[in-house]
Write a structure and sequence with these properties.
The protein is mostly helical. Helix content is about 30%, strand content about 0%. α1 packs across α2 (about 80-85), α1 (about 45-55) packs parallel to α3 and α3 (about 105-115) crosses α4 (about 140-145). Mean pLDDT is about 80; it is low at about 1-10, about 10-20 and about 25-35.
């Protein structure tokens, strides 16, 4: 498989040095919408948004084999799902269904988006939600909480709750901000001044070995 999305996806990886340094979001959590306040998002729709946001592309002759039992190849989201598989975003055993029309849950969305962004928790980080023993991706969920993609209710993350269209938009907006923050401007010209004690050697000078 292609070396994970982490920034084609490498460019979304929290400024390169330490992904955990950006694992918290300072945006206003009130921008997020409470569960049930908007149209639910399907798993297929969510994957399509990830493929678009992170500009994932694969040559058509390099698509992986379709091993999902519930995809025929005629679906309008078929290629996006295969691209996401190629990048490692989707990891489901061969022969099992993908369930494209099921709702994208909080845990599914948190896991797949953070897979793309590559945020990590500090080694001594604590989990703040009560379902830690019952979820498959506790680190991704904690990242989602830290970045205010979702809020807790009485300590519960509610991992199986379907995300809303408003929550999807807020998550992808945050992802786009992370991506743009790590893009280098090729037109930027840096300037500097030498200290008075520094001897500047002209570029054309030849320094003997």
């Amino acid at each position: 498989l292609v070396e994970t999305v982490r920034l084609s996806i490498e460019s979304a990886k929290a400024s390169g040095a330490n992904p955990s340094a950006m694992a918290e979001n300072t945006s206003d959590p009130t921008e997020n919408t409470a569960p049930g306040d908007a149209v639910e998002v399907t798993r297929a729709q969510w994957v399509q948004e990830l493929v678009k946001t992170f500009s994932m592309t694969v040559e058509e002759d390099n698509y992986p084999d379709n091993y999902f039992s519930d995809l025929t190849g005629d679906e309008e989201y078929y290629r996006d799902i295969l691209v996401a598989v190629e990048f490692g975003v989707i990891d489901i055993e061969a022969g099992l269904p993908f369930n494209p029309d099921d709702a994208a849950t909080r845990e599914f969305a948190s896991h797949t988006l953070n897979y793309c962004l590559g945020f990590q928790l500090d080694e001594d980080a604590q989990h703040s939600f009560i379902e830690i023993e019952f979820v498959n991706n506790p680190e991704d969920i904690q990242i989602a909480i830290n970045r205010t993609w979702f809020s807790l209710e009485n300590g519960s993350f509610m991992p199986d709750i379907a995300i809303t269209d408003a929550e999807k938009a807020a998550m992808l907006k945050d992802a786009q901000t992370v991506i743009e923050s790590d893009i280098i401007d090729s037109e930027y010209e840096s300037t500097f001044e030498f200290d008075d004690q520094v001897i500047v050697i002209p570029e054309e000078s030849v320094i003997p070995a």
